[in-house]
Amino acid sequence: MYPKRVAIVAGGRTPFIKAGRAFAEIDSLGLAVHAVSGMLDRYGIEPALIESVVFGTMTPDPLKPNLARELVFGAGLPKSAEAQTVSSYCITGLRATTIAADAIASGRIDVALAGGVDSLTRASVELFREPSTGLTMGEHMELTAKEWNISRRQQDEVALASHRNAVAAREKLAAEIYPLLGEDFDSGPRGDASLGALAALKPVFDLEQGTLTAGNSSPVTDGASVVLLMSEEKAIDCRLKPLAFIKGMVYAAHDPTEGLLMAPAIAVPRLLENQNLTMAGIGVIEIHEAFAAQALASVTAWEQGWKGAPTGEVDWGRVNVNGSSIAVGHPWAATGTRILTTLANEMVRRDARYGLVSICAAGAMAGAFLLES
């Protein structure tokens, strides 16, 4: 895809904590500084190497409109480092990564930080509503669940798997987390999750005929995440072993009336077609669980070929093997680089050649990444 190969060398984050709890008094900048400083310290990266910072947020502080530049100062990065702040709903972290990767691939720079942060404790309720339609994301997803015949049982099964996988991966994920204010782990994963407990929850967005509940939807969360990107040559010079390389990426968008969160049905088949791959060739798959119904509808669309060629059958045993947003949490702008970090590390553990990322976003958009070992 690129003239120069772009490596993910390191990644990390704060714990993801449910909004209004332990991180309620920390602003987005504080969370971002902690994630960046923690990663640089843990990997022994010299801050002087950083040439560019691209960071995203959906909950900006009006007194700090360029959060990325304040992050440069707050984390003790070189004051010569260029910095820009981006915003693109739930694919914000992917967008930040793309901007940084493009700059490295072109040869303009060699080292960059990309990431995202959101303090949803501070989020306006209006951010949960789609401006173009007036419906919330959950209300839109209820319509999609009905259209695609996604059952409540299926959704609860995906939610249960998310919790069980995240709980089982607790120690693995701890290597990606930098403790803060006495919080060492994510607050969301539940060891006592069960289908019975999930089935007892009432629908939230359609009280009469709905299937989406607080249990099979991602929680409102505070947190920050970051990845360190380098050109392959620079990583070799610094004697740093890449976790994975960015092989390809695709963004997609469509009419919200076709399903506000269904753009992954366009992005993922297009990415696989571009790379001459099918799902059978993907070792690990990460699907952002905005809602369990969204993950299920995306997979159904991929397999059937709704907005592109059929991708081949998805092996759910390779999907979100360390849990995902339902259990781990979803601080909007932080999710993209959280997923990239977890995927790259899991590819190393499994010696997988390819890893796939699929993230839906409000505005009827999506992003998909292919990583290569």
What does this structure look like?
With 373 residues, this protein is of the alpha/beta class. The protein has 12 helices and 10 strands. Strands 1, 2, 3, 4, 5, 6, 7, 8, 9 and 10 form a 10-stranded mixed β-sheet that branches. Helix 3 packs across helix 12 (335-350) and helix 9 (264-274) crosses helix 10 (292-304). The model has no long low-confidence stretch (mean pLDDT 97).
Short description:
This protein is α/β, with parallel strands linked by helices and 373 residues long.
Comma- or semicolon-separated keywords:
alpha/beta; 12 helices; ten-stranded mixed sheet; 19% strand
Tell me the fraction of residues in β-strands, as a range: 15-25%
Structural class: alpha/beta
The backbone outline, from C-alpha atoms, is globular
Quick check: average pLDDT?
Answer: 97
| Total DSSP E strands | 10
Subunit arrangement of the protein: single chain
Could you spell the SSE succession in H and E letters? EEHEHEHEHHHHEHEHEHHHEE
Task: Count the DSSP helices.
Answer: 12
Distance between the termini: 15 Å
- Binned, the helix content reads 25-40%
- Sheet with the most strands, sense and barrel status: 10 strands, mixed
Can you tell me the residue ranges where pLDDT is under 50 for at least 5 consecutive residues? none
Q: Give the C-alpha Rg.
A: 19 Å
Helix and strand layout, with pairings?
Layout: E1 6-13, E2 17-18, H1 28-43, E3 52-56, H2 67-74, E4 82-86, H3 92-105, E5 111-119, H4 137-147, H5 152-168, H6 170-174, H7 195-199, E6 221-231, H8 232-237, E7 244-253, H9 264-274, E8 284-287, H10 292-304, H11 325-328, H12 335-350, E9 354-361, E10 365-372
Parallel strand pairs: 3-4, 3-5, 8-9
Antiparallel strand pairs: 1-6, 1-7, 2-6, 5-6, 7-10, 9-10
